[in-house]
Design brief:
Mean pLDDT: 86
CATH topology of one domain: Immunoglobulin-like
Largest sheet: 7 strands, antiparallel
Number of helices: 2
Radius of gyration: 29 Å
CATH class of one domain: Mainly Beta
Length: 158
Protein backbone atom coordinates (compact mmCIF):
# COMPACT_ATOMS: atom_id res chain seq x y z
CA UNK A 1 0.00 0.00 0.00
CA UNK A 2 1.04 3.54 -0.70
CA UNK A 3 1.33 6.12 2.03
CA UNK A 4 0.68 9.02 -0.36
CA UNK A 5 -2.34 11.16 0.29
CA UNK A 6 -4.75 11.74 -2.60
CA UNK A 7 -4.46 15.12 -4.29
CA UNK A 8 -6.75 17.77 -2.92
CA UNK A 9 -7.23 21.16 -4.49
CA UNK A 10 -6.64 23.98 -2.03
CA UNK A 11 -6.49 27.77 -2.17
CA UNK A 12 -2.78 27.88 -3.07
CA UNK A 13 -3.38 25.71 -6.15
CA UNK A 14 -6.22 27.97 -7.30
CA UNK A 15 -4.12 31.09 -6.71
CA UNK A 16 -1.20 29.58 -8.66
CA UNK A 17 -3.44 28.63 -11.61
CA UNK A 18 -5.03 32.09 -11.54
CA UNK A 19 -1.63 33.88 -11.54
CA UNK A 20 -0.23 31.56 -14.26
CA UNK A 21 -3.28 32.05 -16.50
CA UNK A 22 -3.32 35.84 -16.29
CA UNK A 23 0.49 35.97 -16.42
CA UNK A 24 0.33 34.17 -19.77
CA UNK A 25 -2.36 36.59 -21.02
CA UNK A 26 -0.28 39.62 -19.98
CA UNK A 27 2.86 38.16 -21.59
CA UNK A 28 1.13 37.50 -24.93
CA UNK A 29 -0.51 40.95 -24.92
CA UNK A 30 2.85 42.52 -24.12
CA UNK A 31 4.44 40.67 -27.05
CA UNK A 32 1.65 41.83 -29.38
CA UNK A 33 2.02 45.45 -28.21
CA UNK A 34 5.79 45.32 -28.70
CA UNK A 35 5.38 43.94 -32.24
CA UNK A 36 2.70 46.51 -33.11
CA UNK A 37 4.73 49.47 -31.86
CA UNK A 38 7.99 48.37 -33.46
CA UNK A 39 6.61 47.35 -36.87
CA UNK A 40 4.23 50.28 -37.56
CA UNK A 41 5.88 53.69 -37.98
CA UNK A 42 2.66 55.59 -37.18
CA UNK A 43 2.01 57.05 -40.60
CA UNK A 44 0.42 55.59 -43.70
CA UNK A 45 2.19 57.79 -46.26
CA UNK A 46 5.74 59.11 -46.40
CA UNK A 47 4.64 62.69 -47.01
CA UNK A 48 1.36 63.36 -45.15
CA UNK A 49 1.29 67.12 -45.84
CA UNK A 50 1.61 66.63 -49.60
CA UNK A 51 -0.96 63.84 -49.47
CA UNK A 52 -3.39 66.22 -47.78
CA UNK A 53 -2.87 68.82 -50.50
CA UNK A 54 -3.37 66.12 -53.14
CA UNK A 55 -6.60 65.10 -51.42
CA UNK A 56 -7.86 68.69 -51.70
CA UNK A 57 -7.09 68.56 -55.43
CA UNK A 58 -9.00 65.28 -55.64
CA UNK A 59 -12.03 66.89 -54.00
CA UNK A 60 -11.86 69.80 -56.46
CA UNK A 61 -11.60 67.32 -59.36
CA UNK A 62 -14.66 65.41 -58.12
CA UNK A 63 -16.63 68.68 -57.86
CA UNK A 64 -15.66 69.59 -61.45
CA UNK A 65 -16.73 66.12 -62.62
CA UNK A 66 -20.10 66.53 -60.89
CA UNK A 67 -20.64 69.81 -62.77
CA UNK A 68 -19.90 68.08 -66.09
CA UNK A 69 -22.61 65.52 -65.39
CA UNK A 70 -20.87 62.77 -67.34
CA UNK A 71 -21.54 59.16 -66.46
CA UNK A 72 -19.44 56.13 -67.32
CA UNK A 73 -20.29 52.48 -67.66
CA UNK A 74 -17.69 49.75 -68.04
CA UNK A 75 -18.54 46.67 -70.08
CA UNK A 76 -16.11 43.77 -70.27
CA UNK A 77 -15.99 40.49 -72.08
CA UNK A 78 -13.23 38.05 -72.99
CA UNK A 79 -12.12 40.18 -75.95
CA UNK A 80 -12.30 43.81 -74.80
CA UNK A 81 -12.89 46.36 -72.09
CA UNK A 82 -15.36 49.06 -73.13
CA UNK A 83 -15.90 52.39 -71.42
CA UNK A 84 -19.17 54.05 -72.41
CA UNK A 85 -19.31 57.76 -71.54
CA UNK A 86 -22.51 59.81 -71.75
CA UNK A 87 -23.28 63.40 -70.78
CA UNK A 88 -26.03 64.64 -68.46
CA UNK A 89 -28.57 64.41 -71.32
CA UNK A 90 -27.61 60.78 -72.03
CA UNK A 91 -25.81 61.66 -75.26
CA UNK A 92 -22.47 59.97 -76.06
CA UNK A 93 -19.37 62.01 -75.29
CA UNK A 94 -17.04 61.88 -78.30
CA UNK A 95 -13.48 62.99 -78.90
CA UNK A 96 -12.01 61.86 -75.59
CA UNK A 97 -8.48 60.64 -74.97
CA UNK A 98 -8.87 57.81 -72.45
CA UNK A 99 -5.90 56.39 -70.57
CA UNK A 100 -6.41 53.55 -68.13
CA UNK A 101 -4.50 51.54 -65.59
CA UNK A 102 -5.29 47.92 -64.75
CA UNK A 103 -3.90 46.49 -61.55
CA UNK A 104 -4.53 43.57 -59.27
CA UNK A 105 -6.42 44.50 -56.09
CA UNK A 106 -4.21 42.51 -53.73
CA UNK A 107 -0.74 42.92 -55.22
CA UNK A 108 1.44 45.40 -57.00
CA UNK A 109 2.43 42.94 -59.70
CA UNK A 110 0.91 42.84 -63.18
CA UNK A 111 0.16 46.55 -63.49
CA UNK A 112 -0.79 47.45 -67.04
CA UNK A 113 -1.25 50.79 -68.74
CA UNK A 114 -3.77 50.74 -71.58
CA UNK A 115 -5.20 53.30 -73.96
CA UNK A 116 -8.88 52.95 -74.72
CA UNK A 117 -9.47 53.88 -78.35
CA UNK A 118 -12.75 55.16 -79.84
CA UNK A 119 -14.88 52.28 -81.16
CA UNK A 120 -18.23 54.06 -81.58
CA UNK A 121 -19.72 57.39 -80.47
CA UNK A 122 -19.06 57.56 -76.73
CA UNK A 123 -17.56 54.06 -76.65
CA UNK A 124 -13.84 53.57 -75.97
CA UNK A 125 -12.25 50.14 -75.86
CA UNK A 126 -9.02 48.24 -75.35
CA UNK A 127 -8.22 44.56 -75.84
CA UNK A 128 -8.57 42.32 -72.80
CA UNK A 129 -6.19 39.55 -73.81
CA UNK A 130 -4.90 37.33 -71.03
CA UNK A 131 -6.93 38.89 -68.24
CA UNK A 132 -8.26 36.46 -65.65
CA UNK A 133 -9.36 37.00 -62.10
CA UNK A 134 -9.95 40.35 -60.40
CA UNK A 135 -8.57 43.65 -61.76
CA UNK A 136 -9.13 47.27 -60.77
CA UNK A 137 -9.62 49.64 -63.71
CA UNK A 138 -8.80 53.34 -63.25
CA UNK A 139 -9.66 55.30 -66.40
CA UNK A 140 -8.99 58.99 -67.01
CA UNK A 141 -10.71 60.73 -69.92
CA UNK A 142 -9.61 64.13 -71.28
CA UNK A 143 -11.54 66.20 -73.79
CA UNK A 144 -10.25 69.00 -76.05
CA UNK A 145 -11.57 71.67 -73.64
CA UNK A 146 -9.40 70.40 -70.80
CA UNK A 147 -12.16 68.65 -68.87
CA UNK A 148 -11.02 65.56 -66.97
CA UNK A 149 -13.25 62.66 -65.98
CA UNK A 150 -12.18 59.67 -63.92
CA UNK A 151 -13.85 56.30 -63.49
CA UNK A 152 -12.84 53.33 -61.34
CA UNK A 153 -14.33 49.87 -61.50
CA UNK A 154 -13.50 46.38 -60.27
CA UNK A 155 -13.58 43.88 -63.13
CA UNK A 156 -13.63 40.12 -62.64
CA UNK A 157 -12.97 37.57 -65.37
CA UNK A 158 -13.46 33.82 -64.91
Amino acid sequence: MSDRKPFTLNGWHVLGAFVAFFGLIFAVNGLFMYQAIHTFPGQTVDNPYEAGIEYNRTLAQKAAEAQLGWKAEVVKDAAAIRLIVVDSAGQPVEGLRVDARLERPATEQDRRLVVLRPAAPGVYEAPAKGLTGAWDLSATAHDASGHVFEAQRRLIWP
